[in-house]
Fold beta-N-acetylhexosaminidase.
Amino acid sequence: GVVAALLSATTAPAAAATAVAFSSVVPAPVTATATPGVSHGITASTTIYAAPGSAPAAAIANQLAARLRVSTGLPLPVVTTVAGPADGIALLLTGAPPGVGAEGYQLDVTASAITIRANQPAGLFRGVQTLRQLLPVAADAATLQPGPWPVPGGQIVDHPRFAHRGAMLDVARHFFTVAQVQRYLDQLALYKINVLHLHLSDDQGWRIAINSWPNLATYGGGTQVGGGPGGYYTQADYTAIVNYAADRYITVIPEIDMPGHTNAALASYAQLNCNGVAPARYTGTQVGFSSLCVPLELTYTFIDQVIGEIAALTPGPYVHIGGDEASSTTAADYSYFINRVQQIVAAHGKTVVGWHDVANATLPPSTVAQFWGTTTSNAPLAAAVANGTKVVMSPANKTYLDMKYRNNTRLGQKWAGLIDVNTAYEWNPGAYLTGAGETAVLGVEAPLWSETLVTTADIEYMAFPRLPAIAELGWSPWSTHNLTAFKQRLGAQGPRWNVMGINYYHSTQVTWP
Ligand code: TNX
């Protein structure tokens, strides 16, 4: 079966000296069957064929062409006039196995052609990411490279295990610019991540302009951990992020964290405080000290207007309401508050996501709970799941990209433990949390909290190489799960990160070529 296919692919002779192993793809495909001795070279005569009549297919073809022209210098014309497989690279919306769903694809590499077939454009996009990993590392370079550009022959049939494969970026503790977020989106796309969860507000900063409450961004966004200048996204900036993500078939989930983690909002508007007094802005890293004023009716007008503006800017189905660490809110107030906020989000046509703490309130089955605990059982969450709630798995001791790799890691925290590659990879999201089996799990997400992170290099150092481990847990069938094989494939990504300029932790648990 799958394992045999992967093993035979591993031992197949390389089609050319510079060709990559057919089985080196991360996340591991469902099936990968090499055709020994066969390869297809991308050359000056290669044309990229996009499914006729599909603007998204043409856009994906143009993205691929633009990327490869930089490193190969080849013309790689894109045409939309040929329906069938032809010499070159064909991106087709016909002939894919129905079972691969909306994001799956079939990739065939023969001596004469490379063909990706999918049911939906999203599947073409994912298949193109696989094709990129089958090209020599130099294809990922930002400068002209000599080639040649062989792609090893064979067939991959592939689709995701889970619908939700996310990464969270905390832009509140330290602000990151649109360009920095876009760079991260490029990296997420390589590993078939399909959700970017943006943590847009916290005690230390409010990061998105709200027209009806302008001080949130202009004052509440004006600092960050350590007291730097902070920053915020204009609504046009946010839309630019959403669109850039959409071009990579990534859905943005905006989070406004409440009722706790709200000092930046409370500092911006005195009238939101129970005592009518605005606190000072906060630049430390403590949690749990702030709360919106639950008995105050203005609180819900505020939330309605904030969620309304954000929902209108967000094409995806979800709005994340946080709900974590509300230790300055009584249990009764917390339940009342979460109940009202769920109704507000629903009124704006969106589905609620909350950190699993929201299971302490009453959840309709549609509310998604994001598990961030460090244990494998949680009674309120299990009760919500029994009532139909789905779970996104972000166990902090496995998926938290802000945890240190080891004691002397310069960045990060260690409250949930040290996390190196073995720990990040060795758990089964569909069989981890008591009462939340495979069918209750919507997917996985790797949060990156930014108390200690300031630069793009900092983001990358914490995300790589652990993010691809979480991405594989989200995409690949459990039958392919194998730590030794994964670490070989992961190691092979290192040279790609080198040519792409991605800063990564050279974990001693991995052999880097
Ligand atoms: C806990 S995880 C938090 C965040 C911190 C993070 C640091 C969660 C829902 N809340 O406020 O940034 O730990 O690791």
